[in-house]
Amino acid sequence: MKFNSQNNNNYDHYIECRQATLSDIESLLSLLHILFDYEEITFRENKHRKALKMILDANQKCIMVAENHEKIVGMCAAQLFISTVEGGYAAFIEDIIVAPAYRKKGIAKKLIHKMEQWAKKENVYRLQLLVHKNNTSAKKLYKLLNFSSTPCEFMKKNLVN
User: Fold this and answer.
1) Does residue 149 fall inside a structural domain?
2) Would 38 be classed as within a structural domain?
3) Strand, coil or helix: 44
4) Using CA atoms, how far apart are residues 105 and 28, in angstroms rounded to an integer?
5) Under a CB-based contact definition with an 8 Å cutoff, are residues 109 and 140 in contact?
6) Which domain holds residue 49?
7) What CATH number is given to the structural domain containing 15?
8) Once rounded to an integer, what is the mean pLDDT over residues 136-154?
9) Considering the chain, what is the average pLDDT of its residues?
10) What is the strand order of the sheet 12-19 is part of?
C-alpha cells in the first residue's frame, strides 16, 4: 500500500506499507525502544531481537511496516489465536509505533488498515489490542477506527524474566 501524506510542515513524504522481513529487525528494534521508553518498559535489545525473529519466523503472525524512502518509520504487529467466544481466529495487535517525526500524518491509521486487510485474508473474526491508559492520542485513533473498550482488565504473571 503506497500513499502520499501531507505533514505539518507542508511538504510531501512518500510512505509504503508492507510486511516486515528479517532484514528489518534493526529498524524495528529502534521503534520498539521508543515505544518501550514511553511505556516505561526496560529495553533489552537481545530479548526483543529474539522475539522479533520468532514472530517473523512464525506462522499466523504479521508485522507491518511503514517506509519513507526505504526508511522504516512505523510498525504494527499482530498474532493469531483461537477465540472460544468467536468460534475461530482473533488477532492480537501489539507494538503499534510511529517514529516521532512522522506522527499525526495518518501512518498508524494506514498500518492498522493494512493489518485489517491481512487479518481478513486469515479469516480473523476479531482484532484486539492493549493501549497504555495515559496514551490519549492512541485511544482517540482506535475509537476513530471503531475499536471499543471492554470491561476486561489486563493482568499478567511473568514466568521467566
Assistant:
1) no
2) yes
3) coil
4) 19
5) no
6) 2-144
7) 3.40.630.30
8) 93
9) 90
10) 2-6, 12-19, 61-68, 71-83, 88-98, 124-129
Count of domains observed in the chain: 1
Report the pLDDT value the prediction gives residue 26, as an integer from 0 to 100: 97
All three cell numbers of 31: 521503534
Q: Is residue 115 part of a domain?
A: yes
Are the CB atoms for 18 and 64 separated by under 8 Å?
A: yes
Residue owning grid cell 482473533: 90
* Owner of C-alpha cell 508485522: 63
**Strand ranges in the chain using DSSP code E only, listed in sequence order:** 2-6, 12-19, 61-68, 71-83, 88-98, 124-129
Q: Are 28 and 65 in contact (CB under 8 A)?
A: yes
Residue 13 confidence class, pLDDT cut points 50, 70, 90:
low
51 residue type, one letter: A
Q: Does residue 114 lie in a domain region?
A: yes
- For the record, the C-alpha cell of 54 comes out as 520468532
Phi-psi region of 40 (alpha: psi -120 to 50; beta: other; left: phi over 0): left
Cα 26–chain centre separation? 16
